Structures are given as C-alpha cells and as structure tokens.
Amino acid sequence: MKKKIVVLGCTGSIGKSTLKIIDEFSDLFQVVGLTAHSNKNQLEELSKKYNCKNICLSNPNADGVEGIKRVIADSDADICVNGIAGAAGLLPSIYTLENGINLALANKETIVMASHIVYELAAKNKCKILPVDSEHSAIFNLVEKFGKDSIESVVLTASGGPFRTFTKEQLEKVTVEDALKHPTWNMGQKITIDSATLANKALEVIEAVKLFGVPASKVEVTIHPQSLVHSLIRTKDGVLYSQMSHPDMCHPILSALTWPEFTKSSLPPLDLSNNPVENPLTCTFAKPDLEKFPMLALGFKAASLGNAYPIAFNAANEIAVEAFINHKIGFYDISRITENVLSKDWSKLPVTYDEVLLFDSMARDFAKEQLC
User: Fold this and answer.
1) Which end of the chain is flanked by fewer CB atoms within 10 Å, N or C?
2) pLDDT tens for residues 183-239?
3) Is the distance from CB of 166 to CB of 174 less than 8 angstroms?
4) Alpha-carbon dihedral sign for residues 254, 91, 85, 204
5) pTM assigned to the model
C-alpha cells in the first residue's frame, strides 16, 4: 500500500525535492495534500499533476493557516513534510501531530520554539517526528543505529557560508546580494542569509539539544566547506562516526519518507576513490570563528540557557534578517539586534502554544525597537 504524503510548502526548495522523490517512487508514495504560500499557478499545476484536490494557499490573503489545518485534517495522510520556512511552520507541525500523522520536519523553528509541546503531542498521538535537515537526519540515523546511551556528543558540520574566508573588516561591508550567493546549497532567501551569518547553524545547535536530549556543551560545530559529511556522533569510547553523501536534500527527505526502511534510489552514490589525481576528493574541517560569526555564539548561549531564550533568539533573528534583506540594516546589525534581545529575561518556560506565541511576539517587538 502506498504511503500517503502531504507536502506543506510544495513550491519551495524542500517541497520541490520532496515531489522529486515522490515522482521517482510513484509506486511507494501518493500525494494527498499540497500547500503553497502564494504561488497559485504552480500550486494548481501540481494539483493537476498529482490529481490532488486537497490544496490551499496559506498566505493571509487567501486560505491562511485555517487552509493548512483543513488540508492536514482532510488528508488521511501517513506522513506530512513540513517545508514551511520560519515561525509560520510551527502551527502546521502542531496540526499534523494532533491528527496523529508522522511529521517529516524541515522547519527548525518547530523544535527551537516548542520542542516540549510537539514531543508531548507526538507521544500522546503515537506518531513520530523525523528530522529532514541534512545534519539532524544524519545524527538521527546514527543514533538509531548506535543507541542513545552510546553517544558522548554530536558534531554538526557547517559549510561556512559564502564568507568563511572573509576578514571581519570585509564582513562589515557585505551586501544582501553577496550574502545570497551560497557556495553549496540552493535555498530560500532567509535560510541563505542565516547560512551566511551562521545563524542557521546556531538554530541547528538548539535543535540538536532538543531533538537528541544532549546538553549544549555536548554539541560541537565544525566548518566543512565540501558539505559531504552531514554530521557525526562521538561515541563514549571517543570514536567518531559520520554520514556522508552528496549535498542533495533528496537524501534526508527519502530517509524520512521511507523510515524505518532504507530504499535504493537513483541518487548518485558518493564515490570516494573514482576521482582524478589532479582533482581528488577532499574533506577539510576547521573550528568556526565565533568572533567573526557571533550569531553562532549567541545560538550556543540560547541553547545553554533554554526556557524561552531559543524563542527570543529565533524571533530576533527573523526580524533582523528581514530588515537586512530590505537594506535597512547592515550585516553585523543582525547579531547586534539578536544580542540585545537576548539580554532581556527569557527564563520562563512557556508551557502552552499561546505562551510560545506571546514570548515570540515580545521578542519581535524588542527587535523592532532596535531598528528605529
């Protein structure tokens, strides 16, 4: 029997990669729900292609979040891929778990903002949260194989973004256009800027703490520009184990959709030996520079302090990145605004979804004050 799949954010990069996998494995998967934010024409084309009438445009001027709620509730899906960017992806994750549907999660903010809430929902409704970020997918699969009790620490790899070789003086002058030129991955604007500041890796540090139950002190970050190693675990005997593949999001998406099985695909395998002498396959690793990229240090701080600090970090960063994209602030203003917001007291743990939204709104208001 085919697995029934809902794809939230079907016209974005995660959504397109998911549909590519579904196309390859049409004997295994069936599309039963599609949402897009505003690309009506493309949504209608995909609706026809997959003979899927259960669709919605999720922007506030169309169906909004109620449309997403309806699509999920009416889908009778086995798994929902959440490729919605930013805090807007949290509520769809909650809807998915409330309906007892397994959640293939590419939306970092769901875990960063409300991990305790979504995991309680998953346990209550007997469903699984499967990470789709390449780094967390790698760690998830390694932990599944070795067992949580054998893990000493986790190591997140980072490409370093487009500015990893820049000096601090050069970074002070970078433009939005510079920051949108990622050397490895083709992603949306927000996540590409986050990669340039290393805020994306900071969010992944917070996410790793919450997904795998390790303290922030047991999470390491290493700069790995080739993006072939998608993260590692260090076992208690000191040995490192990694997951390696070409930098293609189809790998972690396929892993989530076929879990707990592994399925052979047409994705090209990573060949370690069939490379010319003049162009050998190389893997390099380096320590991140927290002075040049303070967003990563701030992410570790938020992960260590816990409670509502991760919510404040995410909210401040979203406001600052939007201002940067709109040419209202400079590159280093993103970390300045985020640091100022984190200097407030966020020591209370929100226990309901409404409290999560309250802290999120407060942090956004503090961040907006910094723009004036």
Assistant:
1) C
2) 665 667 888 899 999 999 999 999 999 999 999 999 999 999 999 999 999 999 999
3) yes
4) negative
5) 0.92
